What does this fold into?
Amino acid sequence: MNVNDYVTVEYKTGAYIAKVVETAPPRALVEITAVLKHPQQGDLHHPFQADVPLFHERRAAASREKVWVLSSTVKAYNGSVPAYDESLRAAWEEMVRSLERLAQPDQGQEKNDGGSDLALWAERALLNMRQLQKDYWR
It folds into this structure.
């Protein structure tokens, strides 16, 4: 991994294409260029549970935002780099589609290891995503 290389990174439950700005083992400073996966909504300490004291709203990292990540988690990226706005919209839409499927009544009866109702969690996460939609595309 060298400065100016494009890489993929995971950061705060999201996945991104980024450009390496600096390496300082065991970390690397990267600049976000595109969103691959929108961050998860809710309480990370109680995943897929809707009945928690604080149901976190997580924004995607911003275009050109610089973040530190562990070098061991950085992977080389050789594909084309989409425009940030297009990638954010695609990642947001994919997350919403996934949550809408989970929020359907037939999916809501499934329980995860923690025994929480996936449909209720998905509904709360969808509320967060709809609010983020307003913030992202005013």
